[in-house]
Design a protein that fits this description.
Low-confidence stretches: 265-282
Strand order of the largest sheet: 1-2-3-4-5-6
Structural class: alpha/beta
Order of helices and strands: HEHEHEEHHEHHHHHE
Radius of gyration: 23 Å
Largest sheet: 6 strands, mixed
Shape: extended
Number of domains: 1
CATH topology: TIM Barrel
Strand content: 5-15%
Distance between the termini: 59 Å
Mean pLDDT: 78
Number of helices: 10
């Protein structure tokens, strides 16, 4: 006699299948607050905020009101996890992280400005993201004495002069966090590849000088030809080279994603599968 397959059997099979199925959540691992000197900021690019709403002007002086609105709007946008990564600061990140609940997990972090060579415009930004409960005082350990980073609240425009490898070691091994190479293109890893090349930097300084001179006094024919040549030589890396470099970075993602899973499981239940796009975990 054939075995009967009932509705309850079907329901059980579906539940077992769902337990093995990945679920995706809306996350944002690079978020700024009133702790950043450039907050609020606007962009002309499509899809970005082009004008600060009138009711948000002046929130920098009202931290409690800002935090309330931040959580309200994050939930309204159906975000399940955010990492607060202000420029070289983490006070608000610590405070917001404490306000996590069953609907929204908030991780404390920081966007670290790193000077990557002796040239002042050679800079890369690294995100450090930490487990809930990590204090601002602990996060500040990423800036040892003598690294060039001032005390808190005086860090606008400042950069640490540490080696990137030292920063990654402190974040991952000493503080139990993860590292992300922020916004890959501008002040990101692709720019870093270029900025480590002294010859390229020297050419870039000459290009900037000639562009300023052209705007102010005009250029001779030879200078104009030299500027055109420099513009051509300083084109961005072609896609093939960029993609190979990003493929290398992608290999480093898995340990960091595992950490995010571990941090989020007590709050979320089931699988957590963040999918970084404009950021690369290193």
């Amino acid at each position: 006699m054939a075995e009967t397959f009932t509705y309850n059997d079907l329901k059980s099979a579906i539940e077992k299948a769902r337990a093995r199925t990945a679920r995706f959540y809306r996350v944002d691992l690079h978020v700024h607050t009133i702790d950043s000197h450039d907050f609020p900021s606007v962009h002309s690019k499509p899809g970005f905020v082009t004008k600060v709403p009138s009711d948000e002007i002046g929130l920098s002086a009202k931290p409690d009101e800002f935090k309330r609105r931040f959580i309200q709007r994050a939930k309204a946008r159906q975000l399940k996890l955010v990492a607060i990564t202000d420029h070289n600061e983490s006070d608000i990140a610590e405070q917001l992280s404490i306000m996590s609940d069953a609907e929204l997990t908030i991780l404390p972090g920081m966007e670290i400005s790193v000077q990557t060579s002796l040239f002042p415009d050679s800079e890369v930004h690294i995100l450090g993201i930490f487990p809930q409960g990590t204090s601002s005082k602990q996060i500040d350990k990423v800036f040892p004495a003598g690294c060039g980073m001032p005390t808190s609240r005086k860090r606008e425009g400042a950069k640490t002069t540490q080696l990137i490898s030292e920063i990654i070691k402190t974040i991952r091994e000493d503080l139990g966090g993860i590292c992300i190479a922020a916004h890959v293109d501008t002040k990101g890893v692709r720019e870093m590849v270029h900025s480590q090349n002294v010859e390229r930097l020297q050419k870039n300084y000459l290009r900037m000088y000639l562009k300023k001179k052209r705007a102010k006094d005009g250029l001779s024919r030879d200078e104009d030809e030299l500027l055109q040549k420099l513009e051509e030589e300083l084109q961005p890396l072609d896609d093939l080279v960029q993609n190979k470099y990003l493929a290398f970075l992608a290999e480093q993602e898995f340990d960091a994603i595992g950490e995010l899973v571990k941090w989020c499981r007590p709050f979320r239940g089931g699988n957590f599968r963040p999918r970084p796009c404009v950021a690369r975990i290193v």
